[in-house]
Amino acid sequence: MTSIVALGGGHGLSATLRALRTLDIEPIAVVGTGDDGGSSGRLREHLGVPPPGDLRMALVALVGDGSGSALWPRVLHHRFGGTGDVEGHALGNLLLVALWEETGDIVTGLDRLGRVLEARGRVLPNSIDPVVVAARVRTDDGVVDVVGQARLTATRGEIESLRLVPEDPRACCEAVSAIEAASAIVLGPGSWYTSVLPHLLVPGIRNALKRSSAKRILVLNAAPQAGETEGFAAHAYLEAWDGLFPGIGLDVVLADPRSVADTARLAAAASRVGAEVHLGQLLVVDGYAHHPDRLAAALGGALPAATR
C-alpha cells in the first residue's frame, strides 16, 4: 500500500492536506512541536505537553465531507472569550490535551480524535517532546540569538543558523516509520524557518528522510513572510535548504510563476539539491494563498504514478 506523508505545520500544512484529500488520498501528516505562542504556548508551558494547535489544524483539514462535517471544524477551532483561565484557548487544543492525559499517549490521543472526526488520514507529531526553535539572526543591530518560534517569526533580519532546544528531541516512532515507508513526501508550504525546516532538525526525522526512497516534493510559499523570510526571492528558499541540510536532496519543486521573479536562478538552485522545477497556477486570484484545487492538480502531476 502506497502512502503519502506531508510535513509542515499551521495553515500551510492544512492547505496541502486539503489538496491531497481532493485527490482521494489519505495522507499521514507529520506536524512540528515548536509552537510557543497563544493557546498552544500556554498549554505547553503549564502542562508540559507538545503544543496541540497545529496538530488540531491538521486533523480538521482531514475531516471529510460527510454529514455534520461542517460543524466539527468550527467546534474544534472555537476559542473561548471572557477574562478567565480559559480565555483564548481553542476547544480542540483542550480536547487533545485531555485525550493525552486520559490515554497516557500522544499518538493514541490523536488517533482517537481522528476516529471520532472520521478523518481521512492520520496526524502525528514529529517529536514526542515539545521543542524550542532558536536561531542566530543578523539584524541591523548585529547578530543576535533569538529563542522561541513566536519571537523568531517576528524578528527581521537574515537567519544564519537554526537549532532546536533540546538538540536531540525524541522523534515520534510512528512518524519515522511513515517517512521510511512513504512513496512520496510533501514539504511546505509554510513558515520556512519555524514550520518547515525544523522537521529536519529532529535527528530521527532527518535520518528517516535520508533513508527513505520516497519522492520528495517541496511546495514553495506564495510570498515572503514578514520577519523570517522578508525579502526572500524564490531561489532563496532552496539556497537556505542546501546551506543547512546539504545531505538531503529534493526531487520536485512546485511554484507559481507569480511567486518567481527569476526562473533561471530558481532552476539553478533546484538543480543543486537534485530537483526540477514545476511551474503552474497554484495560487488564488490575489496570489497570497494556495488554491486547494490548483495545488491538488499540481501535486497530482508530481506524485508517483502508483499513488494517483
Outline the secondary-structure elements.
Blueprint: E1 4-8, H1 10-22, E2 28-31, H2 38-47, H3 53-61, H4 71-77, H5 91-103, H6 106-117, E3 122-125, E4 132-139, E5 142-147, H7 149-154, E6 158-165, H8 173-181, E7 184-187, H9 192-196, H10 203-211, E8 215-219, H11 234-244, E9 252-255, H12 263-272, E10 276-279, H13 292-302
Helix pairs in contact: 1-3, 1-13, 3-4, 5-6, 8-10, 11-12
Summarize this structure briefly.
By secondary structure, the protein is of the alpha/beta class. Helices cover 41% and strands 17% of the residues.
Written account of the structure:
The chain is of the alpha/beta class. It has a single domain, classed as Rossmann fold (3-Layer(aba) Sandwich). It has helices spanning 10-22, 38-47, 53-61, 71-77, 91-103, 106-117, 149-154, 173-181, 192-196, 203-211, 234-244, 263-272, 292-302, and strands spanning 4-8, 28-31, 122-125, 132-139, 142-147, 158-165, 184-187, 215-219, 252-255, 276-279. Strands 3-2-1-7-8-9-10 form a seven-stranded parallel β-sheet, sandwiched between helices. It has a three-stranded antiparallel β-sheet with strand order 5-4-6. Helix 12 links the parallel strand 9 and strand 10 (276-279). Helix 5 packs across helix 6 (106-117). The longest helix has 13 residues, at 10-22. The mean pLDDT is 93.
